[in-house]
Write a structure and sequence with these properties.
about 210 residues; 6 helices; alpha+beta
């Protein structure tokens, strides 16, 4: 049997969530998402950068008990609130990731057994949140280098750190091309742009 083609999960420059042990229907319900259309992974990811005003979120159907949710660029929300709204069961796992080297901004929220165990926010050499234990060795080294400000330390790319955290906290690295996504709108939640927050930190340093 011919193996199905797989698609690498987009990470760089994306604001996304990896959700486990919650059904697709429950994710739609808890976040009050108005469905627009069901489409392929290719069309869904293209929607993230389109001018389509009918959709600000894409949600995958389940694959190996995981769901991926992406917020459309320029239409972001309070990501921690989304995590907390979905963490409503001791078996749930909801992780949030954001990395963008263009604005030097990296953030993640990691959960286990329905509780947040790790939060990290960094922009332009400033750590604004560093809660919980390190997830990976490279993450620990990256943060220690920032704190110690030792110019002799080996340079570590933020993207590599973000990728290491994602790979250590989500079993799914690629998704099947046949996986369906739903595009739609999140309703009734306070908007909060991660990118704008990082940008404000940059401006404050000028």
């Amino acid at each position: 049997m011919e193996q199905e083609e797989q698609r690498t999960i987009p990470t760089l420059g994306s604001i996304y969530f990896a959700i486990k042990n919650i059904s697709y229907e429950e994710v739609i319900k808890r976040l009050n998402i108005s469905k627009h259309k069901i489409c392929s992974a290719k069309d869904a990811f293209a929607c993230l950068y389109s001018q389509d005003t009918q959709s600000n979120v894409i949600v995958s159907h389940q694959t190996e008990n995981w769901i991926f949710l992406y917020l459309k660029h320029g239409s972001y929300y309070d990501c921690k609130s989304i995590v907390q709204m979905l963490l409503n069961n001791s078996k749930n796992k909801v992780n949030f990731y954001f990395s963008d080297s263009c604005i030097d901004c990296y953030q993640w929220i990691i959960s286990e057994n329905g509780k947040i165990i790790r939060e990290f926010s960094y922009s332009m050499s400033i750590i604004s949140n560093n809660f919980g234990d390190y997830i990976t060795k490279i993450e620990k080294k990256f943060i220690q280098n920032l704190v110690l400000e030792n110019e002799g330390n080996e340079f570590i790319f933020g993207e590599d750190v973000a990728d290491s955290v994602f790979e250590s906290t989500c079993e799914i690295k690629k998704i099947p091309e046949s996986l369906l996504f739903t595009t739609g709108q999140i309703n009734g939640m306070c908007k909060f742009s991660v990118a704008k927050k990082c940008k404000s930190l940059i401006i404050s340093l000028l």
